[in-house]
Amino acid sequence: MTKIELDHVTKEYGSLVAVDDIAIEFTEGAYTMILGPSGCGKSTTLRMIAGLETPTRGDVLIDGEVVTDQPPRHRNLSMVFQSLALWNHKSVRENMGFGLQMEGVDKEERNARIEEIAAVLQIEDKLDQPPSELSGGQQQRVALGRSLVRKPEVILLDEPLSSLDEKLRLEMRTELARIQQELGTTFVHVTHNQEDAMTIADEILLLNEGEVQQFGPSLDLYHEPDNEFVADFIGSPSINLFDANIVENGAVRLDAGGISLDLPERHRDQYLSVPRSDVRVGVRPESMYLGDDGESGWPAFSATVDVVETFGDYNWYYLQSDLEESLVSQSANVNVMNSLSRGDEVTVRVNPESVHLFDPKSGEAYF
Ligand code: ADP
Q: Which residues form the ABC transporter domain (predicted)?
C-alpha cells in the first residue's frame, strides 16, 4: 500500500490561488474523496498528486519520498479521467491491454491480468467486443480496468460518475466501493457530489476556495463539522441554520425569535464558555422530530407544515415557525407520515445533543 502526503502544497495561477497550503496525509488503502463546490481546487489537487501539475510551493510525497518534480510515469499511480477515451475500433481486451503492451509486458501475462481484472469488474464476457457495444456503465468499467491492469498502487479518479445518468451513477458508485475493497488499492476520487462522497468514502477532504475545510472520516464531517461551511455542505437536505442568543436562566437555553430551547445540563460549562449573543445554531433535519416522535423531555416549539416531500419510507417536512428561516425536518415515523399535511400545526422536538453552535463571524464550531 502507498501513502500520499501533501506537504503545505499551494498552486497559484497568476494572482489566483487555486490550492492554498494543503497539508494532509491520505490514509493508505482507503477510499478518499476530494469534495467541494465547483472551482474549489479539487482537480488541481488531484493533478498535482498525479504529476500533471507542479505546485507553486510545497511538496507531494509518495511513501515518504518527495516526488514533486517527478513525471507521472515515475509515481506508480494511474488516473481515470472523466472522458473515457476508449478506442471503438479495438476490442475491450485490446483497450485494457494497451498500456501493458507499451510497457513491454508479454501477451500471456497481459491476458492473465486483463482476465483477472475483468472478473473483478464483471465484464469478462465482453472482452472480445468493441466498447461501443457496451452500456455506459460497462464502458466506465473498461476505462477503470485499463488503469487497474497496470496494478498501480494508487488510482486517481476525476469525477468518474458525473457523465452517468442517475440510476447508473448509483450502481457504479457501489461498484467502485466494492472494487476498491476487493483490491485494497488506495483510491483518491474527486467529486462535487456530497452524497457520493458520504456513501462510499472512508475519508473526505472537503475544500472551499482552495482551502481545507475538514479532512477525516466521512461520519466525522457529518456529526462533528469543524465549521458552518462543512455542516452546510454535507447532508441533504441541508442542516437547519439559524441565529440565536444563549441565555442563562437556571437552565442554559437558546433564544431564537419566539423560540427557546433548553440545552443539556451536562454540557452547561461548554455552552457558557461561548459568547452569549449572536451564535449560529445548526440542527440536522433528522434531529428535529415531529409530533410525539422523540423524547418528551426534549425542548419543543410549534410550527406549521408548509411543504411535504414524500420518499416512500420517509418524508421531508418544510416548516414555518417563529424563526425567520424555514426549517426542514425528516421523519420516518409512520404515524407522523400518515397524519400530517400542508397547513397542519405541529409540535417540533429538538434533540438537544445534536445542536451545533458556530461563531457567526468565522464560522468555526465552538466545540
Ligand atoms: P475544481 O476541480 O474544484 O472544480 P479546479 O481545481 O479545476 O477546481 O480549479 C480551481 C481554480 O483554478 C478555478 O478557479 C479554476 O478556474 C482555476 N484553474 C484551474 N486550472 C487552471 C489553469 N490551467 N490556468 C488558470 N486557472 C486555472
A: 4-234
pTM score, whole prediction: 0.92
Question: Residue 19 CA: which ligand 1 atom is closest?
Answer: 10
Residue ending a domain, among 233, 257, 284, is 233
Q: Which of 6, 9, 13 has most ligand 1 atoms within 8 Å of its beta carbon, as the pocket-test mutant?
A: 13
Q: How far apart are CA 262 and CA 255, in angstroms?
A: 9
Q: Are residues 101 and 64 in the same domain?
A: yes
Identify the domain containing residue 201 by its residue range.
4-233
Number of compact structural domains in the chain: 2
Phi, psi of 210 (to 5 degrees): 80, -5
How many whole angstroms separate alpha carbon 242 and alpha carbon 357?
10
pLDDT tens digits, residue range 133-159? Answer: 998 888 888 988 898 898 888 999 998
Ligand 1 binding pocket includes 40 (Cβ within 6 Å): yes
Task: State how far the Cα of 45 lies from the Cα of 169, in Å rounded to an integer.
Answer: 23
CATH number at residue 195: 3.40.50.300
Last residue of a domain, one of 210, 233, 256: 233
